[in-house]
Design goal:
- The chain is an alpha+beta fold.
- The chain has three domains: 248 residues, Bira Bifunctional Protein, Domain 2 (BirA Bifunctional Protein, domain 2, 2-Layer Sandwich), CATH 3.30.930; 63 residues, Herpes Virus-1 (2-Layer Sandwich), CATH 3.30.40; 93 residues, Rossmann fold, CATH 3.40.50.800.
- 32% of the residues lie in helices and 27% in strands.
- Helix 5 packs across helix 6.
- The structure holds glycyl-adenosine-5'-phosphate.
- The site of glycyl-adenosine-5'-phosphate has 19 residues, from strand 10, strand 13, strand 16 and helix 11.
């Protein structure tokens, strides 16, 4: 089913997943806040990534580095001077556009990632691409627009106090690579991952939470010997797909793999494959897997003067490790999950919206619903047992008719509803309703533990 973004966004707002940022002040363009259920879901997603890539992977360890770093980090990484977008202004209506996006939005099969400014300008003129606002084709030449947010640290505002909000979490890992390796006594190959906020002053943010100026990344930098014969790129490409297929349950038919051609590769990469998701507004990058070689470590070694080489205990050789980087945005993955989970269904007795979230990501796994006031005490007992003793995220809802309460739980993606009714005090059983099939089963309370363990594992 093709979903409409407006409907999805309205649903996520009305259910407490995503709110417009600074809403009571008229909002702030393209900023979004995560409501009570969005925050739970986001935490579950980050936890799933951390479990899979850090805790359960035999090679990897985690880090948590600062957003604001020494400015030399960004000179070494190439971000100062290179991390910019090609902008042009419409001479007629004075609106400002990204040249590459103007072309790609008109010619959907074209990828102009590696084109020079002159190529972009010439193509726009030759094809007479018009300003989306006033429909004239009369643009200025391209100017470069710096994407890093710049500010000053401390009380003095001069060149020496300039700092940047990090545009990627990766550099924090490269800068602490040696400390992490030494203190944990890691031998190659090993990886370091982290989750954290990144900031980019994007010219064309949009498509809801797809491209924003403040977002979170989950990045892994995997270090290995340049003499290692194992194909680590293929290994991580497979791991990412395993995570998508089995942990967050993105169906294979909803994404594609796209290999970057030579002209499109970033300055640090010798190979990049993007996993692209079929969003309702078009295919877009979800997860990038790049071979960064030893670009970052050699740059940081050069600029900092610190020896970042690795002494191979097997060969006694000293060399700089090479790196494979799988990098994904939390919100972009969340959007893919929202798009895939949101379903509008016609029923015999009406219709419903159901979020078919994977069980591990759902904000609540279970809702406890007493049928009437008389069953509240017994219901609270079951609720406390599941929430506290079994440590399963559980909600309690006693208000409104049972049909409406089921609909609300469907709409927020709760996989199971447990109803305590008139018969419970006689037969010590509850009714369990499945979100997706809407089928109901009668289960005795003493069997609940093993039933839930089995269903939620
Ligand atoms: N360290 C490599 C790096 O940052 P990237 O392709 O620029 O590479 C990696 O970003 C991922 O971060 C993207 O695949 C996307 O999921 C996410 N991302 C990048 N820019 C974003 C933005 N403005 N808003 C939301 N997510 C973004």
């Amino acid at each position: 089913m093709k979903i409409e973004m407006e409907k999805l966004i309205a649903h996520l707002k009305s259910m407490g997943f995503v709110f417009q940022g600074s809403e009571i002040y008229g909002g702030l363009a393209n900023s979004w806040d995560y409501g009570p259920l969005g925050a739970e879901l986001k935490n579950n997603l980050k936890q799933a990534w951390w479990d899979f890539f850090i805790k359960k992977n035999p090679y990897n360890i985690g880090l948590d580095t600062s957003i604001i770093m020494n400015s030399k980090v960004w000179q070494a990484s190439g971000h100062v001077g290179n991390f910019n977008d090609p902008l042009l202004d419409c001479k007629n209506c004075k609106s400002r556009w990204r040249a590459d996006k103007l072309i790609e939005e008109k010619f959907l099969d074209l990828n102009v990632g590696g084109w020079s400014d002159t190529q972009l300008e010439d193509f726009i003129k030759e094809k007479q691409i018009k300003c989306p606002k006033c429909e004239k084709c009369d643009f200025t030449n391209i100017r470069k627009f710096e994407l890093m947010f710049k500010t000053n640290q401390g009380v003095v505002e001069d060149a020496s106090s300039i700092v940047y909000l990090r545009p990627e979490t990766a550099q924090g890992i490269f800068v602490q690579y040696k400390n992490a390796q030494r203190t944990l006594r890691k031998q190659l190959p090993f990886g370091i991952g982290q989750i954290g906020k990144s900031f980019r002053n994007e010219i064309t943010p949009g498509n809801f939470i797809f491209r924003t100026r403040e977002f979170e990344q989950m990045e892994l930098e995997f270090f290995f010997s340049p003499n290692d014969s194992k194909d680590w790129f293929e290994y991580w490409l497979n791991q990412v797909q395993e995570f998508l297929d089995n942990i967050v349950k993105i169906s294979k038919e909803n994404y594609i793999l796209r290999e970057h051609d030579k002209e499109e590769l970033a300055h640090y990469s010798s190979r990049t494959v993007d996993i692209e998701f079929k969003f309702p507004f078009g295919i877009g990058e979800l997860w990038g897997i790049a071979n960064r070689g030893n670009f970052d470590l050699s740059q940081h070694q050069k600029v900092s003067g610190e020896d970042l080489t690795y002494l191979d205990p097997n060969t006694n050789e000293k060399y700089l490790a090479h790196v494979i980087e799988p990098s994904v945005g939390v919100e972009r993955l969340l959007l893919a999950i929202f798009c895939q989970s949101y379903k509008e269904e016609k029923l015999d007795n009406g219709e419903r919206i159901v979020m078919q979230l994977p069980v591990n990501l759902a904000p609540y796994k279970i809702a406890i619903l007493p049928l009437q006031k008389q069953q509240i005490d017994k219901s609270l007992e079951v609720y406390e047992h599941i929430n506290k003793n079994l440590n399963i995220a559980c909600t309690f809802d006693e208000k409104g008719n049972i049909g409406k309460r089921y609909r609300r739980q469907d709409a927020i993606g709760t996989p199971y509803c447990i109803t305590i009714d008139f018969d419970t005090q006689n037969d010590n059983c509850v009714t369990i309703r499945n979100r997706d099939t809407m089928e109901q089963e009668r289960i005795s309370i003493p069997d609940l533990n093993s039933y839930l363990k089995n269903k939620l594992s």
